[in-house]
Write a structure and sequence with these properties.
Length: 210
C-alpha cells in the first residue's frame, strides 16, 4: 500500500538509516561547505550535470536551501560510519504518491571514498526505506552511460536499464546516451530474500533482515 503523504510530511524523513559502512542522517546547515566543494569540482560536474561547467556558488546555495534542507526532496547526508565523516548526499525527489514512485539521486562527493561500496550501501538503505517503510512501488533514476561505476552500483541494488535517450550528452568530443533505470518493489524484495538465504550474488553490505 502506498503511503499517501506529500514530501513535506515529516514521517517521510527518518532521523537516520544505518548500515554496516555508512549512516544516512538528515542534512544540517553546516553541510553547505561540503556542497560548495563538491559541486564546484569539474569531475563531479562531469558525472552529475547536463552542463559541462560546475555549479556557481549561488546555484549551490539555492539548491541546498530548496532540495537539501527544504521539503522539495527527501535528502539524506551520507556519513562514513567508522569516522562519521560526511562523504556524500542522496535523495528522493518527484514523488508520485498516487502511483508509488520517486526519482533517486546520489553523489559521493569525497573522491577518496569512491570505489569502497559506500554509494551502493547508501542506495540499498534508501531503497529499503522506500519499499519497507514508505510503501513505494517503483524508484527510477537517470545516469550517463560513461558513469560505469555508478551503473554497476545501481545494478547491484536491483536497478535495470529500461530505456535510453540516445546521444543526448556531449562530453570529451563525442556523444553519449543517458540511461533510464528503475527498480520495482517485487524485484528488490526478491534480491533481499536471496541475500537472507545466502543465495544471491555479492550485494550491498547493509543488513537486509531489518
Amino acid at each position: 500500500m502506498v503511503y499517501r503523504a506529500g514530501m513535506d510530511h515529516r514521517s517521510w524523513f527518518p532521523e537516520a538509516l544505518e548500515g554496516e559502512r555508512v549512516v544516512l542522517r538528515r542534512h544540517v546547515g553546516g553541510n553547505l561547505a561540503a556542497f560548495h566543494r563538491w559541486y564546484a569540482d569539474p569531475e563531479i560536474a562531469r558525472l552529475a550535470r547536463y552542463q559541462e561547467a560546475p555549479m556557481r556558488p549561488d546555484e549551490i546555495e539555492r539548491f541546498f536551501a530548496s532540495r537539501v534542507l527544504g521539503n522539495e526532496a527527501l535528502a539524506m547526508a551520507v556519513h562514513e560510519k567508522a569516522t562519521n565523516r560526511l562523504i556524500g548526499t542522496c535523495a528522493f525527489s518527484q514523488l508520485d504518491a498516487d502511483n508509488g514512485s520517486a526519482l533517486y539521486h546520489i553523489t559521493i562527493g569525497e573522491k577518496d571514498a569512491w570505489g569502497h561500496g559506500y554509494g551502493t550501501e547508501a542506495t540499498w538503505l534508501m531503497l529499503r526505506h522506500a519499499f519497507e517503510t514508505l510503501g513505494l512501488h517503483r524508484i527510477a533514476l537517470y545516469v550517463f552511460e560513461f558513469n560505469e561505476r555508478a551503473i554497476r552500483a545501481y545494478r547491484r541494488c536491483g536497478f535495470v536499464v529500461e530505456g535510453r535517450a540516445r546521444e543526448s550528452i556531449y562530453r570529451e568530443g563525442r556523444w553519449w546516451d543517458e540511461l533510464a533505470m528503475s527498480v520495482i518493489e517485487s524485484d528488490w524484495r526478491r534480491i533481499r530474500d536471496e541475500l537472507r538465504q545466502g543465495l544471491g550474488d555479492r550485494r550491498p553490505t547493509a543488513s537486509t533482515t531489518g
